[in-house]
Model the fold of this input.
Amino acid sequence: MILKALLLFLLSFGHSYAGDLLAQINARLVKTVITNGNFQQEKQLKILSRPLISTGVFTYHQSKGVIWKTLTPVVSLLLVNQSHLLTNQGEQAVPAAFGRVFQAMLGGDLTQLADDFAITGTDQKASWQLQLKPKDELLQKIISTIVLSGDNELRLLEIQETSGNITHIKFDQITHPMQLTREQESDFERLSP
Amino acid sequence: MNKSRILSAYHPKATAWLWLLGMILISILGIQALTRDWLETGFLALLPVTEQKPEVAKAVQQHNELITRKVIWLTGASTSQAAIAHAQQLKQNTLQSGLFKSVVLELPQQQYIKSYQQLFPYRYQLLDAQTRGILSKNPKDLISQNLEILYSPIGQMQAANLERDPLLLFSRYFDAQNPIKLNLEQGIVVLHDQQQNWALLITELNDSNLQLDKLETLLDLVNSSQAQVQAAGGELMVTGMPLFTAHGSETAKQEISTVGVGSSVGILLVMLLTFRSPRPLLLSFLAIGSGMFAALVVSILFFGKIHIITLVFGASLIGVADDYALHFCCDSFGSKDWNPRRGLKFILPGLAIGLLTNLLSYAGLGFSPFPGLQEVALFSAIGLLVAWLTVVLLFPLLLTGFKPEHEPRLLKLSTYWQQHWPDWMLKNKRWLILVLLVFIIGGIWQLTPQDDVRLLQSASPELMKTADKIRELFPVSQDNQFFLVSGKDQNDWHQNEQRLLNSLKPLQQQQVLKAYQGLSSYWPDERSQQENYRLLKQTMYDSGLLKQYMADLGFSEDAVKAELKQFKDSENKSISLPEWLATADEAKQSLWLGCDSVRCQSIVSLTGINDFSALSALQSLQGVSLVDPVGDLSALFERYRLRASALLIAVYGLVLLGLGLKFGWRNALIITSVPVVAVLVSLATLGWFDQLFSLFNLFALLLVLGIGIDDAIFFFIAADKRDSTSLAVTISALTTLLAFGLLAVSSTEIVHAFGFTVAVGILTALVLSPLVGRGLGKQH
Done:
């Protein structure tokens, strides 16, 4: 467990190609500069008898990054872009690729993921589903599968760790406003160095 | 007379044998000296051993050790994948070069893991400052911070070891070990700026003192890698002390050949045009060559190694060493019945006094504490002495039968010059003196001394720009200055350093500096470790807060019990400094200077200093001193600049005294006035042209003294041979001017200043010296 955590600290993802399936699904997704939505996150940690449930809102901006604001049970803010990751406790040392993946998923540009994951899945009329398996050998030791599903938006994200921990994130009330609110603007400003 | 007795005992063949024997001896010594590694290139080797206490010197050395070997490479591309790919290629190149003892691209994961495992058992004792602060102020804040982490989508990383570290204490401590957060991709540090992603590669040289060919290999490696990365569409930035050294040596090498070739070609042309015979030319080169060779051999034998900058100065010696040969050969134009023996008899006093003053001025250089200048002094003195001996011992034999029949054009010119120029000067002396006074006073008025030690180093603006850019991107590289913290024992040291670190924290927030690193912020001493444990016990474990927190999260009762037991069992644990250091990385290890019977000492390293004086004020803290090696050296420069001024005056006094005893006081004053005015004009020109004025110009002025005196004396004793003397002085001034003028093109500030100063001085002496023995001074 310790080792895996450290590896996750130290690593990130490799690369490869984007398949037809991915392109197909990608074409279905709404792509705008700004995406807003609510999330409900459920973390099931093996050592805890109850899941850790939290809810909040997120904002994606094509060039600025992602604001991940948890509202319950504790208020906290996470700002991430390609090069920075800020929390209330300051700058964090987390692979920049993490920010990239985050942004790829929320921004609806899934093709970027093909570099780092082997992707399988189904594309049906009502919804699509993708299973992502990390290509990097060391990353495989930590994350077994990431499952994504949705329609014209990403609706569900599930991270299955090899340890048995599972994180389940549901997205709803997704909107695509034309402009950021002033609060969102100022949050993003904190990210630019 | 003594002189004639010496000369009557003089036998050209015998002296030539003597010379040959001497040269053979030097050659034998030379084989020994030149076959080993004798060339020094490092910048630090030029600097004097600091006049500091040994413990400070040791700290400086340990602090420099890491800096002097490190080469930092950044490969840039628009995507981080591409940047990493470039870096991987670069890594191969650097490994193949065999220059480096370590090449780090992927951060060593094994080391982190090992260090994690070794320190984890001490998690209740090793608290970081922030956690300690939270616990003593409001322990509940720690719990809410933990919840934030646990509920965050990226929390797994920080909370990965939740099972064994439910309060995330160790996760916080371990995280705080690396205060500067670097982005890692595939285990590689990737930095970002507006346009580019940069992958970081750090290499460390095998040897902090690289030989010249290795430096070339390094430069070649940098250049070829640069071309390779660029061809692949990327960018490469490289910095590090070794690179500065390599560029410095490269420049020095070019300058040696510019100065050497330039003065040789100058001498070649002048000699051929004047004598229309290859003999004086070949003999001159023999004199110069013997002198330079002997200088090289003796200097290496004496110093062990000599610096490349010495050779730059040495190359300029060509112009001075040539003087003796010139005076001898030019004398052949002086009288109809000239032969080498008679010529030597006439010229010897002048040559002897010339040599003495030259040696005296170079000896002056030897009084400086700078190894570089001491080398220049010995090198030049030996070079001149042997060139002089070659002329005196060998020339009479080899010039036998030499008698130029023609009258060279240069002789006509210099004859006209020496006949009319003094008259014109004397006629116009009123306003000439006025102009001269205004020029001198005005120029010296504008003279502003600069004593910055960095002037010793020649760095291209490009190199500096890259270095700045890299420092901006990667603010981990330490500044030259640091705090030295001491205490009478480990406890005392720890307290003192903690006090310093606590005072540095607000300064960091005020942007006085970017970052600092001290051991005591990572390693709490045994007493603090016990305090940490007690603090945890009181706030978390005995208060029931931990129990409640774990229960709320959903830990099982067994897990809570296990954690309480773990805590209880760890009560008497403690980790000593050596044990802790064994788990630390090289940078942290190098901060510890160790304990002896009287004290324990450490370094607190500093990064990105903006306000030095604010840091300097912290020296009022107990056991804290701020060490600024560069600043100290600059102060040393200033001190020695003042000392060198006194030395200069003393040497002039000495010369005046010697000449006074030989030629009478009035004549001595007249002869000395030539170099004195030359020196003043030199200084004034520096002022008018806003040139660098430092310690080194003063040493240059010693040479102006030597050369100026030469010129004046030769005119003084010339009697009816003024024409040939004038020719010799003119030619010698031309060749010397060429040599030092070429030094003035150097890109190393001090070499440039040196050349400029001497060039102006020689020119002035050339202009003034024909006055001696004409309007002024009488033959005795």
